[in-house]
Amino acid sequence: MTMLGRAMPDRNAATPPQAAPAAGGKDLLTVAAIPRACVVHLLNVARAMKAAPRSGRAATHLAGLTLGLVFEKPSTRTRVSFEAGMAQLGGHALFLPSDTSQLSRGESLADTAQVLSRYLDGLVVRTFEQSALEDWARHAAIPVINGLTDLCHPCQALADLLTIQEAKGALEGLKLAYVGDGNNIAHSLIEVGAKVGMRVSIGCPPAYQPDPGIVARSRDDATHTGAVIDITDDPAAAADGADVLYTDVWTSMGQEREQAERMKALAPYQVNDALLRRAKPSAVALHCLPAHRGQEITEAVLDGPQSLVLAQAENRLHMHKAILTEYLGRPWFPVEDGGTR
Ligand code: CP
Ligand code: NVA
Fold first, then answer.
1. Which atom of ligand 2 is nearest to the CA of 185?
2. Most exposed among 132, 200, 212, 272, judged by the fewest C-beta atoms under 10 Å?
3. Nearest residue by C-alpha to atom 6 in ligand 2
4. How many domains are there within the chain?
5. Active-site residue, from 61, 79, 153, 330
6. 95 within a domain of the structure (yes/no)
7. Cα–Cα distance between 223 and 1 in angstroms, integer?
């Protein structure tokens, strides 16, 4: 049985996958749904993954397990880091773009999820609506991991914690400023910041502010961790004294028709040298990538000395390996540790 008490398919596997106790449930759909201790645990495992020799026990840790990646939107980092992560841990990954499966000819999500559960040990799903992702999770007997939806991108934000921790040490009390569109990345950063006690300052135009429900629920979480979530339409106020200055594209996948109006509204929210100077001199600049140089971020900042974007992209791999070990039921640390190491 899983953490949710649902029966896993009996495929006579030697080690059937079950979410580890530290995963906080069968699926990884949002950061908000993961207990704080699990976020901390995933971070610890990701650090261990990064340090582990590739030729050691890591090389066979997920042997015999197969991950499917059902993607309805393009991807470079998420797809490749999950596929490479499975390969490095001795498992196998199958890329399943939805336009090449029977989904594109009208086979239902429910039937597809149930059938794939008879072949695979886990799914990463990149789709549009969060409700579609929830449908995948409900119909699949295997773990479903959010590979990005219109609402959130939890794997990105969890990996970003690793990058920030490496750059700054402790996470608690750091000021993370996100300036730009209040989108899926902003939502997951708000949620993750609330879990680890950061001061998250979001600077967005009035029409592009983050989802009020996510902000309210994260503020509830923040009461337990000392986090503070500030929302402003003033980019300079958001960036003032920040330890981390973060931005993302102004037009996300699926919003292409809104591009002209978004470019106009978001132009004052560009991350450039002047905005970076509002942050601490020691601040680091992050962007989940892909970036549009000269739009949401200047080339000077993206390629400048304070930018950590390549380390940030690399850390997707290490965090995804941690996520895979926990959610595919082969925890890296012994379960007796209680999932809090
Ligand atoms: N940051 C990110 O998720 O990149 P991809 O769209 O390339 O996966
Ligand atoms: N907000 C962007 C993130 C891409 C990784 C999008 O959804 O397109």
1. 1
2. 212
3. 252
4. 2
5. 153
6. yes
7. 33
pTM: 0.93
**DSSP structure class, residue 59:** G
Is residue 16 one of the residues assigned to a domain? no
Q: Which two tokens stand for residue 279?
A: 């942050």
User: Using a 6 Å cutoff on CB, does residue 75 contact ligand 1?
Assistant: yes
CA angle 63/68/70 to nearest 5° reads: 165
Residue 15 counted as domain residue: no
Our answer to whether residue 316 is catalytic in this structure is yes
Give pLDDT tens digits for 16-53.
445 555 566 899 999 999 999 999 999 999 999 999 99
Residues in the chain: 341
Domain hosting 286: range is 156-313
DSSP secondary structure of 62-74: TTT-EEEEEESS-
Atom number, ligand 1, closest to the C-alpha of residue 76 = 7
Confidence band of 83 (pLDDT split at 50, 70, 90): very high
Cα–ligand 2 centroid distance for 6 (angstroms):
32
Task: Identify the CATH number of the domain in which residue 120 sits.
Answer: 3.40.50.1370
Same domain, 90 and 206: no
In a domain, 282, yes or no: yes
Q: How far is residue 31's CA from residue 238's CA, in Å, rounded to a whole number?
A: 22
Other beta carbons less than 10 A from residue 293's beta carbon? 12
